[in-house]
Amino acid sequence: MLSSMTGFISKTITISTDKEQLVNVSIHLKTLNSRFFEATCRLTHALSVLETEFIKRAKEKLNRGHMYLSITISDPNYFKGKVTTSLSIVKGYLDTLKEVQNQFKLPGTIVINDLLRIPNIFVAEETFIDEKTRDLILKGFDEALLELKKIRTAEGAELLTDLQKRTAIMMEEIEEVKKLSKATLKKKQEEIKKELVQLGKIDSELAQQQRMQLYLELDRTDVHEEIVRFKTHLKSFDTLLNKKQEEKGRQIDFILQELGREINTIAAKSDDSTISSHAINIKVELEKCREQIQNIV
C-alpha cells in the first residue's frame, strides 16, 4: 500500500447556538509534499486554542507532508461576547473637546450622536468556545482527516501501479544486460586468452606487467556482481512497494539510490553500445521512479 502526500478536502459542519441559531463551520484541509510533517493553520482567535490539538491529530494520521488548515465560520460574531463601551476612550475624547471648547470659546454642545462617530469606543469581547462546540469541531476535523486519507490512499494506488510498471520494465532491461554481458565477457575472455598465450612465450618483466594488465581488464569487464546486486535491490524495491506499512517514502528513496549506483557502474564498465543503451533505459525508468516517490509518504 502506498499513500500520496497530496490531497484536498473541504467539510462543513453545522452547530446550533444557545439562541437556536445555526452556524456553519467550514474546514478546509490541503496537504503537499514535504520531507517531514509540517502544519500551517489559519484560525480565528476563538479557535486558536485548538491549534495544538489539530496538529497533534493530523500528525498521527498523515505522518508526512505539509498540511494547510483553514477554518471559516458563516457568522463571524458567533464567538463574540457582549458589546461594552470603552469609557476611558470616551472620557479622553470628551475631556479633549471640552478643553478645546474652553480654550477657543467655541459655542455648541456635545450630544450622543457625536459620540457615535468616535472610533473604537465599542468593544466586542472575544470568547472561547465551549466544550460542546469544541467536541463538534474536533469531530468534524477528524472526519475531514479520514476523508483526506482516503484521497491520498487512492492517489497512492495509482502511484503503486505506475511504479510496478517501471519495476517490470527495469527487470526486463537488466535481464537483457545479463545476456549481453555474458556474451561480451566470453568474447573478451577468448581475446585475452590468445594474448596470454603469446605473452606466455616471453619471459620478461614487461610481459608479466602486460599479463597483469589483461587480467585487470578482464575483471573490469565482468559486471556479474553488479547485475546480481541490482536485481536484489529491485526485488527489495518491489517487496517494499507491496508492504502494508504506510510510511515508506524514505526507504524507497534509499533503494533507488542503490539501484542508481549499480547501473552507473555497469554502464561505466561496459564498452558495448547495446548494453549501454539498455543501461540508459534503466536510468530513465529510475528517474521516473524518483519523480513519483517525491509524493509518497
In short:
The chain is of the alpha+beta class. It has helices spanning 51-62, 87-104, 112-116, 131-200, 205-221, 224-241, 249-269, 273-293, and strands at 7-16, 22-32, 37-42, 65-73, 80-85, 122-126.
Salient structural properties:
297 residues, alpha+beta, four-stranded mixed β-sheet
Write the layout of secondary structure elements.
Blueprint: E1 7-16, E2 22-32, E3 37-42, H1 51-62, E4 65-73, E5 80-85, H2 87-104, H3 112-116, E6 122-126, H4 131-200, H5 205-221, H6 224-241, H7 249-269, H8 273-293
Helix pairs in contact: 1-4, 4-5, 4-6, 4-8, 6-7, 7-8
Give a verbal description of the structure.
This protein has eight helices and six strands, in the order E-E-E-H-E-E-H-H-E-H-H-H-H-H. It is of the alpha+beta class. The chain has three domains: 7-78 and 130-152; 80-126, no CATH class; 158-293, no CATH class. The strands form two sheets. A four-stranded mixed beta sheet has the order 1-2-4-3, with helices on one face. Strands 5-6 form a two-stranded antiparallel sheet. A hairpin with a 5-residue loop joins strand 1 and strand 2. The protein is elongated and about 125 Å long.
- Secondary structure category: alpha+beta
* Number of domain units: 3
Overall pLDDT confidence: 85
Shape: elongated
